[in-house]
């Protein structure tokens, strides 16, 4: 059990744009690689307006389900899959990662992208999962999804597209994305 | 020049009105019998949060494999020079040269080793090197205000920088942020990922600032305030502050930690 109380988070604020983004930050693999997929979407607020000053991070398993433990995210060499990327939203609230489809980390597990959201106006980071939509049996067996009210479950499942996946993040509102907390938070 | 900020200022509330909102929330919190240790997502005095906070309860998740690991960073990612924000340009930046150091530990007090710490901040005049910051204070061509480092085997980070200035913003009329340094932190689990702000002791703007006050618990807020440390201060060179960071508890078992060390 934890003995120390965690340091509080604070908003990322509006001025991270010259500090946190880096070259090829959203390209976990180079665009054009045969197995590359696009994970993209729009971040919107409670009025449905795009959030142009959010920053998203993705953390995921490799295509074979293994957890990458290799350095090199900040200075990508184009060959090393590190599993982690970062993308500031554009003026239309859009983000776009180029990556690979995550594999199941355990037999039968439903693969997902772990997404972290930071934004001006958001006092602390938010976590969510973007599940791959293909394996219906795995989704039905997923413990987190089973605990989410049925009408909200779809907010956690990415939509398949010819080039990859679409996953919108709605910070507030009727179709608000399900955000996560973990034991100890 | 001085009017460019004011004509765009749509914020109607006075500081007195804002401070009354802050005080009402804090007194309601004090009257309750629960302890909050993190900021409230729903904190109306911070106006930008109104449409940007989730209204539904966060879903408790049992961390799965990927959530119990974090990305790796190494010397390939971060040059040791990036920890000194005062040597990134020709010439010395203006302001109080300051060393900020401390340890990153998890909820059990274990050091977070060889992990990435990123910082960014305003210059001594309270201006960010960012296009959206049009506050008419001088930019310093010798100071960008961005740093990175890896923690050492004890979890220690150390930056040499310039003490940032406070700056105005548009949350309400005559709103000013206390001086702060933004910190971005990773742990050994991705569930520990966090971004926060470090403040300097004794800032008169603390009570007035809805971002700092979005943490309704006074003891929790104080965890964001560094301590002046004369042992960090160096003779005829730089003042020194110490600030330790505690991440949420790790979910990984010791067995998995052993595996991690092999990678």
Automatic annotation (TrEMBL), chain A:
<comment type="similarity">
    <text>Belongs to the intradiol ring-cleavage dioxygenase family.</text>
</comment>
<dbReference type="GO" id="GO:0008199">
    <property type="term" value="F:ferric iron binding"/>
</dbReference>
<dbReference type="InterPro" id="IPR012786">
    <property type="entry name" value="Protocat_dOase_a"/>
</dbReference>
<dbReference type="InterPro" id="IPR000627">
    <property type="entry name" value="Intradiol_dOase_C"/>
</dbReference>
<feature type="domain" description="Intradiol ring-cleavage dioxygenases">
    <location>
        <begin position="29"/>
        <end position="104"/>
    </location>
</feature>
<keyword id="KW-0560">Oxidoreductase</keyword>
<dbReference type="InterPro" id="IPR050770">
    <property type="entry name" value="Intradiol_RC_Dioxygenase"/>
</dbReference>
<dbReference type="Pfam" id="PF00775">
    <property type="entry name" value="Dioxygenase_C"/>
</dbReference>
<keyword id="KW-0223">Dioxygenase</keyword>
<dbReference type="GO" id="GO:0018578">
    <property type="term" value="F:protocatechuate 3,4-dioxygenase activity"/>
</dbReference>
<protein>
    <submittedName>
        <fullName>Protocatechuate 3,4-dioxygenase subunit alpha</fullName>
        <ecNumber>1.13.11.3</ecNumber>
    </submittedName>
</protein>
<dbReference type="InterPro" id="IPR015889">
    <property type="entry name" value="Intradiol_dOase_core"/>
</dbReference>
TrEMBL record, chain B:
<dbReference type="InterPro" id="IPR024756">
    <property type="entry name" value="PCDO_beta_N"/>
</dbReference>
<comment type="similarity">
    <text>Belongs to the intradiol ring-cleavage dioxygenase family.</text>
</comment>
<dbReference type="InterPro" id="IPR012785">
    <property type="entry name" value="Protocat_dOase_b"/>
</dbReference>
<dbReference type="Pfam" id="PF00775">
    <property type="entry name" value="Dioxygenase_C"/>
</dbReference>
<dbReference type="GO" id="GO:0018578">
    <property type="term" value="F:protocatechuate 3,4-dioxygenase activity"/>
</dbReference>
<dbReference type="GO" id="GO:0019619">
    <property type="term" value="P:3,4-dihydroxybenzoate catabolic process"/>
</dbReference>
<dbReference type="Pfam" id="PF12391">
    <property type="entry name" value="PCDO_beta_N"/>
</dbReference>
<feature type="domain" description="Intradiol ring-cleavage dioxygenases">
    <location>
        <begin position="100"/>
        <end position="128"/>
    </location>
</feature>
<dbReference type="InterPro" id="IPR050770">
    <property type="entry name" value="Intradiol_RC_Dioxygenase"/>
</dbReference>
<protein>
    <submittedName>
        <fullName>Protocatechuate 3,4-dioxygenase subunit beta</fullName>
        <ecNumber>1.13.11.3</ecNumber>
    </submittedName>
</protein>
<dbReference type="InterPro" id="IPR015889">
    <property type="entry name" value="Intradiol_dOase_core"/>
</dbReference>
<keyword id="KW-0560">Oxidoreductase</keyword>
<dbReference type="InterPro" id="IPR000627">
    <property type="entry name" value="Intradiol_dOase_C"/>
</dbReference>
<keyword id="KW-0223">Dioxygenase</keyword>
<dbReference type="GO" id="GO:0008199">
    <property type="term" value="F:ferric iron binding"/>
</dbReference>
